[in-house]
Amino acid sequence: MKRFSYSLLQHLNRHRTDCRVLSREFVSDIIPSRINGAQLSPLSRTLLKSCKTAHGLLLLKNKTHEFRYNPSPNPDTMVDISRHLSTSHRKINQKSEIKEAFQSAKTIEEILKAFDDMASAIDENFGTAFLKEDEDHEKLLDFGNRALKILESGNKAPLPVVIILHVIMGNASYLLSRINDSLGYLNRASRILTKSEEDGVNVDNVRYVLYVLLRDLAKTNNAMGRSEEAIVNLRKALEVQEKVLGPERREVGTSNRDIAQEYLGVLNFKDALPFCLKAIEIHKAQLGNNSVEVAYDRHFLGLIYSGLEEHEKATEQKELSKKVLKSRGLHSDILSIDFDAAGLQIALGRYDEALNTLKDIVQQTDKENETPATVFILMAQVLCNQEKFADSKRYLEIACGILDKKDIVPSKLVEDIVFNKQIVQDYMEISMLYEIMNEFETAMSPLKRCLAINEKLPQEHSIWSVFARIGRLLLLTGKVPQAIPYLEIASEILQGSYGPEFIEVGYNYNNLGVAYLELDRPQSAAQMFSLAKDIMDVSLGPHADSIEACQNLSKAYGAMGNYKLAMEFQQRVIDAWEGHGPSARDKFREAHRLLEQLKKKTRGSSLNEFPTKALLLPRISELPSFRSSRPNVKVSEK
Question: pTM of whole model > 0.70?
Answer without folding.
Answer: yes
